[in-house]
Amino acid sequence: MRHRTTAIVGLLAALALAGCSASTADSKPSATGTTAGLAAEWGPKLKQATAADPAVNAVGDQACAEHLTDIAIAVTELEGDIADEGGKAAYPETSAQIDKNNAAVQAYTDHECLGDENAGIQGSPCPDDVQTILSTAEALPLALQADEAQ
To answer: Biggest alpha carbon distance in the chain?
Structure first.
């Protein structure tokens, strides 16, 4: 069962990534709107950070690593703003997404994905690392809204 699950996850990651970038950002509801606070400020910033250049197309290439770095920088800056606004107690959902993102960024580094010509193949942990970085960053605007609505 584990082999089948791993194969399915690998296939879904490969299909979803179609390289490094994911094109799901446009299909999600906008984080901006009537919400005030960090959600209104960070929704557009995170959308910009997660929007990949069309040249980003391989998990282990330099363009992908630069894209992931831009995301990591944005998430780190958001984490600082959250600390200034009450920390994890005030933003539990957002903080959980940030923790997942940070762990995936560290895993991408630990797995030495950058420059690995096999980074995108089935069995490599790199596509999962990239997908987690992208999906958690894309989930942050909604997490911010949920935390601020409470």
So the answer is: 46
> For the chain, which ranges sit under pLDDT 70?
1-36, 55
Task: Report which secondary-structure segment, H or E, holds 33.
Answer: none
Q: The pTM is what? A: 0.74
Token digits for 61?
Answer: 């290439």
Closest Cα partner for 53 from 45, 62, 41, 42? 62
Is the separation of the CB atoms in 141 and 49 below 8 Å? no
- DSSP states along 36-66: -THHHHHHHHHHHHH---TT---TTSHHHHH
Length of the chain: 150
The CA distances from residue 7 to 1, 12, 48, 119, 125, in Å, are 10, 9, 32, 16, 12
